[in-house]
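Q: Second attempt. The first request was missing the SMILES, so the protein and nicotinamide-adenine-dinucleotide are both included now.
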Amino acid sequence: MRLNDHAVVITGAGGGIGRAAAVAFAADGAAVIAADLADKADAVAEEIRRAGGRAVAVSADVSHSTGMSALAARSVQEFGGLHVLVTCAGLGGAGLLLEQDEREWTRVIDVNLNGTYRAIRAALPQMMAQRRGRIITIASILGKMGGYGFVSAYVASKHGVVGLTRALASELGSQGFPGITVNAICPGYVRAGMGVAMQATKAGPMSGAEIFERYYKRLVPQRRMIEAEEIAHAAVFLALPESAGITGQALNVDGGFFMS
Ligand SMILES: NC(=O)c1ccc[n+]([C@@H]2O[C@H](COP(=O)([O-])OP(=O)(O)OC[C@H]3O[C@@H](n4cnc5c(N)ncnc54)[C@H](O)[C@@H]3O)[C@@H](O)[C@H]2O)c1
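A: Got both inputs this time. The predicted holo structure:
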């Protein structure tokens, strides 16, 4: 158990990648605050406890700063600190830019980018007091490239998440907090959550798995979707003492898609 003395807060923990991250951190000994809308994280917290791990489910909306502050406080109250923050909460929001109204654009930016900011903003004071912490944002390879249409709000939000990750890593490192690292994971097409959900395309609604098979598979050197557990294990790696020198990075876990 490498993370016994770690309390981990995970937003979007009821989703495909969030659930896998919660399970992986708990399996490595960490105490997990599994946060999501309403009761969406209850099942994963229960699953972890049944397996002998430590987890509490919390209802928390990343659209509200007060909810994020309460989340950080809950981690300190339940588990004596807040050592790792993993921001998985996110929305897809596919559609052509001119066909989406401004509210849809704003909602995607508000959850994906501002929500990541709010979670970090709430967790940082505790991490600074501890002089240690790991912030792991779940961005996307679409945080580095333009995509293939229908995803402008999402792409803009994920570029923002990568930018925030880099800027904050720089700021903390140079302002006397080298013990707090900030890194992004940029998944490619994942066989879970929004990676398999129905999406708008030029040819009509299609499942993520079908979109992958039709349009992306041939562009991915490994010719496969990524498993949610692979994203989770990358997050665990970024929380280990051995990765203390890694900060401000945006790690692609994408089967080689972006590189190629
Ligand atoms: N699945 C993929 O292929 C893929 C690829 C690249 C990046 N990602 C990113 O990974 C993250 C997790 O996605 P996923 O695939 O597990 O999708 P998912 O839809 O299963 O999970 C997203 C979770 O975020 C929660 N959420 C949404 N709005 C929220 C809010 N306002 N407050 C709190 N929680 C909220 C949802 O309830 C859901 O449980 C997202 O940020 C997504 O952009 C996913």
